[in-house]
Write a structure and sequence with these properties.
With about 220 residues, this protein is of the alpha+beta class. The longest helix has 19 residues. About 10% of the residues have low confidence. It is elongated and about 55 Å long.
């Protein structure tokens, strides 16, 4: 590279935080093309100021663009399985293990978040889906009680994007099962959602907004 600073180039969604991806989506509205799109991606995903990006040799820009090319493509839903547990900082987070035990507060907050902008509320929804693990035994674990706070939401801005996509795909597929009026067999199903037509439709619309935005 022609710059002295080593450039950390993300190669997959696991290398991109939710916060960075939201920043990229918003900056790319309306969609940029050509070198403007490449420059924008390098600035945000590599965390470089524009003056530094402009000093990078064109040959190196081309190499970075090739590496990051996959991140620009619409994600395929079957590429992102649910990630039950992941570590953020020194804290291990676990996906809500039993959605049949979803509390009224969790459900209301989840429903309310789905009424707003899909990107503004993604960290908030992740903070409901994933919470700190308090006890663990092999694949089994118990998560902390739900306590909504701006701090928990902000922590989810550092969540890897592949984790977020896996959770979205899980709920999208679960919601389609509920929409058919059949009982899902996978762990994490919540029969109460099937009884709340308005709630599941609202969440499904929110998820469709996420995937539509990713395809732009």
């Amino acid at each position: 590279m022609s710059t002295r600073k080593r450039i950390q180039v993300p190669e997959s969604m696991a290398d991109v935080t939710v916060g960075k991806y939201i920043q990229l989506v918003k900056a790319n509205d309306p969609p940029k093309e050509g070198m403007e799109a490449v420059r924008l991606g390098i600035e945000i995903l590599c965390g470089l100021p524009r003056p530094m990006v402009q000093r990078i040799a064109f040959a190196d820009i081309a190499k970075i663009a090739r590496i990051m090319g996959k991140l620009i493509q619409p994600p395929k839903m079957d590429e992102y399985p649910l990630v039950p547990r992941f570590t953020l900082g020194n804290v291990e987070y676990g996906f809500v293990p039993d959605w049949s035990e979803l509390s009224l507060g969790e459900f209301v907050d989840l429903e309310e978040a789905c009424k707003g902008d899909v990107w503004e509320h993604l960290p908030e929804i992740l903070a409901i889906m994933y919470r700190p693990i308090v006890t663990s035994m092999g694949p089994l674990y118990e998560i902390a009680p739900y306590k909504p706070s701006p701090g928990q939401r902000d922590k989810m801005l550092e969540c890897p994007m592949n984790v977020a996509l896996g959770a979205m795909v899980f709920f999208y597929n679960t919601g389609k099962v509920f929409g058919r009026g059949t009982e899902p067999s996978s762990q994490g199903s919540n029969p109460r959602w099937a009884q709340s037509g308005g709630g599941i439709r609202l969440f499904m619309d929110w998820l469709k907004g996420i995937f539509s935005a990713l395809k732009r």
